[in-house]
Amino acid sequence: MSFELYYWDGLQGRGEFVRLALEEARADYVEVARGDEALGLGTASMLAVLGSRSEACPPFAPPFLRDGELLISQTANILFYLGPKLGLAPADEGLRYVANGLQLTIADAVTEVHDTHHPLASGLYYEDQKDAARLRAHDFIDHRLPKFMRYFERVLQQNPAGDAYLIGATLTYVDLSMFQLIDGLHYAFPKATRRFGEHYPCLAALHDAVAARPNIAAYLASERRLAYNESGIFRHYPELDKAAR
């Protein structure tokens, strides 16, 4: 039976972190919102689950994943579930909680990226908060971005199994998510990340190694990989970007 992934059509968003794990493992999955309504798929089907009165605990928002009778929400929680099933989690049970902690920290960084272009209210258009966004984005570039990246660089350097992966000696879903975070930052803030490899060589090497993995490379070159756009989390507004200190 296929996994069913529910996320907004036309957006990478938080759903992309789940897609990368499914693609790396060549898992059988269906993008429900991107499917044919004649087959019972499409955005209306996703909204029906969100508003369901029959689900014991319906999800608050996408992404969410259905595996048989099980419905799982929240990106980090989905990956915590999928990791062992897809061979993308540490074998040691204790380290799985460490991996989850790293994934939650990535989620914190993603939220701060989103808030660079929507610092006042998610319900307002970007154009209604441009001045505040400029202040927030420049503070993010100067302070928060290096704080997050220095931390993740140190995690790589201090991995007892070597600096090729964030945890353990083999690829996990956390490495795939780190690739997506770095890749999105390059799109959103090309000036700020121009010297990324100089400042964070281990992270840059991880990003490139993930991109070169056969299954990921095939996915990135396919139509399944949606393009970045100014409706997602990672948005490129030139006025928000600047060279890092």
From TrEMBL:
Segments forming domain GST C-terminal: 92-240
Keyword Transferase: yes
Keyword Transferase assigned: yes
Entry-linked InterPro entries: Glutathione-S-Trfase_C-like, Glutathione-S-Trfase_C_sf, Glutathione_S-Trfase_N, GST_C, GST_superfamily, Thioredoxin-like_sf
Taxonomy, superkingdom: Bacteria
SUPFAM superfamilies according to UniProt: GST C-terminal domain-like (SSF47616), Thioredoxin-like (SSF52833)
GO MF annotation terms: glutathione transferase activity
GO biological process: glutathione metabolic process
A Pfam family of this chain: GST_C_3
Ranges of residues in domain GST N-terminal: 1-90
Signal peptide region: none
Keywords (A to Z) from UniProt: Transferase
Protein name, UniProt field: Glutathione S-transferase
Organism the protein comes from: Paraburkholderia phenazinium
